[in-house]
Amino acid sequence: VLLRHDLHTALRDDQFELYYQPIVEAASGRIRGLEALIRWHHPERGMISPGVFIPLAEQTGQIIPLGRWILRRVCQDAAAMHVAGKRVVPVAVNISSLQFRRTGFIEDVQRALDAASLSPEHLELEVTESVLLDGAEQAIELIDQLKAMGIKVALDDFGTGFSSLSYLRDLPIHKVKLDRAFIKDITTDRHDAAIVQGIITIAHHLDLVVVAEGIEEEEQQQDLIRRHCDLLQGFRFARPMPREAVMALPDRLP
Ligand code: G
Ligand code: G
Ligand code: MN
Ligand code: NA
């Protein structure tokens, strides 16, 4: 109850901050983009995880103004980092399904790009299969519109929940992000390895780029290079960090 009220004032009082985690080319470790991850510095409770407050904001509807703020801030940050000559684009933003399916979402995205003078190919949106809850047609149409605007869409957390292979076939997405649950034991569990290999192979045949999340060890990186995974993300390379810290990173990680 307290948090719910606090969310309301947090936006006004500028308590949110965007962190950015690098996404690297698997074989070289070269930075190929960033994922934006929101943080809430609560005045009394300290740092609160988005895993806690994003679901709350979805329940209360506050995800709409919050989501709009996130889009604008990420576009501004992406433009600033790009202008500074850092090869850190595209920057990916997680989009809540409620925000995605709401009337006016496309206009919100366009306004955020315009306000920051950010080129659309420098923005990427991450959605999960829950955007399909009310039927696939609307989601397909929205992703097609974004694609026409020059914005790429990635399917996040793939392989868990109700992910279906037909989504890879039917959604006009550009990229699929393998959930870190499959990566954790990839070097020791042949079943996880089989699933990851299968998804990579299918995705490549469908002309999709594959990102593996949650890489923490070099052995996992080596394994995924052998399996021809395109891009990697995880603590092995870098944790989510403020924009200024991103600017200080070398071009190649770790
Ligand atoms: O950064 P962290 O691992 O704590 O994020 C936890 C969850 O919160 C992840 O599922 C992530 O997708 C989600 N999340 C993080 N930042 C954002 C954001 O800006 N918008 C939305 N909708 N979800 C986010
Ligand atoms: O649901 P989504 O994929 O958007 O969530 C991304 C989340 O994963 C972020 O909260 C980020 O902090 C977390 N994350 C990123 N890299 C790693 C990692 O190597 N290990 C673990 N455990 N979490 C990670
Ligand atoms: Mn994500
Ligand atoms: Na994910």
UniProtKB/TrEMBL annotation:
Residues 1-254 form the EAL domain. This is cyclic-guanylate-specific phosphodiesterase. It comes from Chromohalobacter marismortui. The lineage of its organism: Bacteria, Pseudomonadati, Pseudomonadota, Gammaproteobacteria, Oceanospirillales.
